[in-house]
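Good morning,

Attaching, inline, the backbone tokens for the sequence recovery test we're adding to the shared suite. The designed sequence is right after.
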């Protein structure tokens, strides 16, 4: 998550892969055997990994990748990972340098309205070694999103403490985005969001970005964006990313 909310959080030692990640993998394999669907994935190199408007890599580059199985019925499961540094930056005794996410959900449409929906759950896992007594940064959120034409909206709700912040379960975030296809392969993008953090004075903040993207026929995409938030300090930053989809 963020150096703002995550800076007040640390994590005790985590060993082994959490059950939710295994569930996502087994669910994907089970769906692949049971019904038709599609496997997709991507690898990204970005100049900075931002989550809800705040750097996770101290404004340094990140390598990211993910894979997903989507069944024709609408059910899907996947895993995604990225290099990070916010935990080890906050404490030299913390070794975690990676974020691994597992997720499950269902996508569908509201009849013939042209409005799609997406409901699911995601688990954020930060494997590594941690000092004794640190609160776990591992987090589970449930989410619900809708999309119509070039617009999208998503609401996320933390059913655990939010990235290790004590007594922060019930925190939530809302994201609103728009993507316009201005020419074949070209898009203009904008997004704004709000993070509410339970039981943290001054923990709530807003974030936004504007950018542009270009898709190529060989599966490569490039994107550039300007990002900012309303936290105190110089948080505005430009990001550049190259993605290969398969």
């Amino acid at each position: 998550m963020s150096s703002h909310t995550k800076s007040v959080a640390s994590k005790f030692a985590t060993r082994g892969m959490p059950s939710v990640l295994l569930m996502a993998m087994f669910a994907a394999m089970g769906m692949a055997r049971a019904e038709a669907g599609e496997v997709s994935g991507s690898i990204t190199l970005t100049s900075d990994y931002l989550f809800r408007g705040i750097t996770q890599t101290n404004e340094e580059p990140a390598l990211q990748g993910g894979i997903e199985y989507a069944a024709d019925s609408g059910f899907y499961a996947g895993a995604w990972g990225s290099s990070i540094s916010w935990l080890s930056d906050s404490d030299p005794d913390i070794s975690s340098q990676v974020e691994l996410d597992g997720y499950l959900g269902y996508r569908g449409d509201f009849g013939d309205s042209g409005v799609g929906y997406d409901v699911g759950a995601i688990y954020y896992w930060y494997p590594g070694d941690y000092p004794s007594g640190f609160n776990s940064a591992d987090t589970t959120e449930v989410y619900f999103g809708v999309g119509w034409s070039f617009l999208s909206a998503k609401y996320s709700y933390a059913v655990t403490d939010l990235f290790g912040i004590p007594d922060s379960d019930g925190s939530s975030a809302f994201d609103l985005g728009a993507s316009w296809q201005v020419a074949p392969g070209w898009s203009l993008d904008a997004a704004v969001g709000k993070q509410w953090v339970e039981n943290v004075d001054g923990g709530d903040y807003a974030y936004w970005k504007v950018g542009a993207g270009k898709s190529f026929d060989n599966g490569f995409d490039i994107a550039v964006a300007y990002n900012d938030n309303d936290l105190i300090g110089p948080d505005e930053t430009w990001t550049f990313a190259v993605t290969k989809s398969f």
